[in-house]
Amino acid sequence: MADRTGIFAGEDPFALARAWLSEAGRSEPNDPNAIALATVDAEGLPNVRMVLLKEIEDGAFVFYTNHESRKAEEIESAGRAAFVMHWKSLRRQVRARGLVSRVEGPQADAYFASRSLQSRLGAWASRQSRSLESRAALLAEVARVTARFGTSPPRPPFWGGYRLVPLEIEFWADGPFRLHDRFRWSRPDPGLDWSVVRLNP
Ligand SMILES: Cc1cc2nc3c(=O)[nH]c(=O)nc-3n(C[C@H](O)[C@H](O)[C@H](O)COP(=O)(O)O)c2cc1C
User: Fold this and answer.
1) Segments in 36-97 forming alpha helices (H)
2) Cα-only R_g, the chain
3) What is the pTM of this model?
4) Quick one: which atom of ligand 1 is closest to the CA of 37?
5) What distances in angstroms separate CA 158 from CA 68, 116, 171, one per listed residue?
6) DSSP labels for 28-48?
7) What are the binding positions for substrate in this chain (predicted)?
C-alpha cells in the first residue's frame, strides 16, 4: 500500500508489533506489554481482563496464565480470543483476533523458570478465578506449597501459556483532530498471505 510509511512501514506485522512494543518500553511508566484480553463465554457474553504479553513469535502472540481459570475455560471452548494493547505515551494501539491454542512443554517450563520464586509459588497457591474464603487462606496455601517445593517449584500441571495466531491485526496511531491512521492486516486462514487495507478512523 503506497502510503503505509513511517511507523507503519514493513511487510511483517509481527516485526511491526515488536518494534512498537519496544518503543513503548522506553516511554510507558510500567507494563508496556499489558494487553486487554477478550474472550466469550458459552452464551456469547464477552469477558475481558488484562494479561501480560510475554512473547511475540514469528506468527503468534503468547501469554501465560492458569489453565483452569475462567479465561482458560472460555478460550478452550471457543478456540479463539482477541486483545488490544494501548500505549498512552505513544497514543497508539495494536489489536489482534484469532485462533488460540495451549503453550505447554519446554517453552512453558522455560518461561515459568524465569519467574521469581514468589511468583512460581504463587502460581501453585492460586486456584485462579475460583472463590477464596479469605486472604489468610491464600497465604496459608503459599506456606503449604513453600514447605512442599522449597526453592525449586516445577511448573504446575494447571499453569502454562496460550498462543494466539491472528487472522486480523490492526495498527492504530493517533492523528490530529481524530483523523487517526489505521491499517488492518487480515487473512482468512493462518496459512494464507496477509492483505492490508487502510481504514477510516
Ligand atoms: C497489568 C496486569 C497484568 C496481568 N497479567 C496477568 C497475566 O499475565 N496472567 C494472568 O493470569 N493474569 C494476569 N493479570 C490478572 C488478570 O487480569 C485476571 O485478574 C486473572 O487472570 C483472572 O482472570 P479470569 O478470571 O478472567 O481468568 C494481570 C492483571 C493486570 C492488571
Assistant:
1) 70-78
2) 19
3) 0.97
4) 17
5) 6, 18, 33
6) -SS-TTEEEEEEE-TTS-EEE
7) 54, 111, 115, 119, 178-180
Q: How much is the pLDDT for 1?
A: 58
Burial call 54-88: b when 16+ CB within 10 Å, e when fewer = ebbeeebbbbbbbbebebbebbeeeebbbbbbebe
Best residue among 28, 31, 49 to mutate for probing ligand 1, ranked by most atoms within 8 Å of CB: 49
| Cβ within 8 Å of residue 87, ≥6 positions away | 20, 24, 27, 28, 32, 93
For residue 47, the ligand 1 atom closest to its alpha carbon is 26
- Whether residue 70 has its Cβ less than 6 Å from ligand 1: yes
Cell numbers placing 100: 488460540
pLDDT per position as a tens digit, 25-62: 999 999 999 999 999 999 999 999 999 999 999 999 99
Please identify every residue annotated as catalytic: 178
Nearest to 123 by CA among 70, 162, 159, 164: 159
* Rounded distance between C-alpha atoms, residue 126 and residue 130, angstroms: 9
Our answer on whether the CB atom of 41 is closer than 6 Å to any ligand 1 atom is: no
Report the C-alpha gap between 100 and 3 in whole angstroms.
32
The label of the residue with cell 494501539 reads: 93
**Angle in degrees, CA 153, 154, 157, rounded to 5:** 125
- Which is it for the CA torsion 108, 111, 114, 118, positive or negative? negative
Give CA–CA dist 5/171, Å, rounded. 12
Is any atom of ligand 1 closer than 6 Å to the C-beta of 113?
no
